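Please decode residue identities from the backbone states below.
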């Protein structure tokens, strides 16, 4: 993921859809970052921090789960993928 795209995106999505986001949780792999970034939130409150270095052989992928009501899954998935870093 590109942090310059991801952080503004997560802030925007939680501000616009916050009342319907009961919980969000994820592990983010930022390009050039050797540590896993863990993010979690409730409604419009989000927090995140580096957790630990990626283990040898561990698949470096970003995963984010939203639990909520009336969320537009396609919009969230598409905009999340737009945060991916270029190779």
């Amino acid at each position: 993921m590109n942090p310059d795209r991801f952080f503004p995106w997560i802030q925007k999505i939680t501000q616009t859809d916050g009342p319907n986001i009961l919980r969000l949780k994820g592990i983010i792999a930022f390009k050039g970052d050797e540590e896993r970034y863990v993010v979690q939130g409730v409604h419009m409150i989000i927090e995140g921090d580096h957790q630990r270095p990626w283990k040898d052989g561990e698949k470096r992928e970003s995963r984010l789960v939203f639990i909520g009501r009336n969320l537009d899954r396609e919009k969230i998935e598409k905009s999340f993928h737009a945060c991916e870093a270029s190779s």
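Observation: The longest strand covers residues 45-53.
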